[in-house]
Amino acid sequence: MKILYEDENVVVVVKPPEILSQFSETEENAVSILREQTGSEIFVVSRLDRNVGGVLVFGKNSKAAADLTRQMQEKVFQKQYIAAVRGKPEENQGVFEDLLFKDSRKNKSFVVKKERKGVKKASLEYEVLCSDKEISIVKIKLHTGRTHQIRVQFASRKMPLVGDGKYGAKDNCKNMGLFCRSVSFRKINGKEILTFSAGPENIYPWNIMK
After folding, report:
1. Active site annotation includes 132
2. Structural domains counted in the chain
3. pLDDT of residue 203
């Protein structure tokens, strides 16, 4: 796995699609791969869905993992995504705000109209980077971190992500049109904000960005 940065506390990598973010005894996963690559213990801080690639940060000790988790809660830890969606938003930039309900049995989230038990607010801001007749490439910043949030918020507006058959796309790809492009966080035991980025521009459907 490509390592963008490593020190005594963290390792920042580019996770390919089809590799699990968390440990598994039966499937290929980032934790096992990084334990072998770094010779260190690896602690999961955040996750990307199996068929989503992008920049991902892991702790190398429990103290660092706890610090990164706290940074997420305090909104210091930031992630930026790009998505390839079918169609185009009405506005070139804006904010989506919805109420989401997660059905754990189906491992799927739904936009609902009223607050009730299990319903959580979801918010993101987006900017259209480019588009052709069928696909738009959109930059996204999450204000909240709900299950499948980007996927369901765009799909509910009839703009499913390319390759996301679970949420209404006609195609269903191992390399879904969603990529975590960058992460920013405060260095452990320091004040410096570190930012790391990567891009999938040469892979379909991202090649329309050229």
Report:
1. no
2. 1
3. 67
